[in-house]
Design a protein that fits this description.
By secondary structure, the chain is of the alpha+beta class. The chain is 36% helix and 33% strand.
């Protein structure tokens, strides 16, 4: 299963955004996102591409769900493991993803 990881857009330059993922800033491509993105928006990132802008009404719920997955799931929970790997990938820790 593949999941996206939510992050807050800090800056947009053309089709590239600088996005904050739990304190780690990475550049994300905006080529396939479904609507314009601006600083302050939240996006769902998958392997370096924003796949959609998270509507403002869903941001708090989405972040809370991911926090719960990260902190409360059992170590053998496959969804939590996938989220942890996506975050590790955003942080540039390739060993955790491979």
């Amino acid at each position: 299963m593949c999941l996206g990881v939510p992050g807050k857009v800090i800056e947009v330059a053309g089709n590239v955004a600088t996005v904050d993922f739990w304190g780690v800033r990475r550049q994300v491509q905006l080529d396939v996102v479904d609507e314009p993105v601006a600083p302050g928006d939240y996006i769902l990132n998958h392997v370096g591409f924003a796949i959609r802008r998270i509507p403002e009404s869903e941001i708090a719920e989405t972040l809370a769900l991911y926090e719960q997955l990260i902190t409360q799931a059992e170590q053998d929970d496959l969804m939590a493991e996938d989220v942890r790997n996506e975050i590790a990938g955003a942080r540039g820790d390739r060993r955790a993803v491979d």
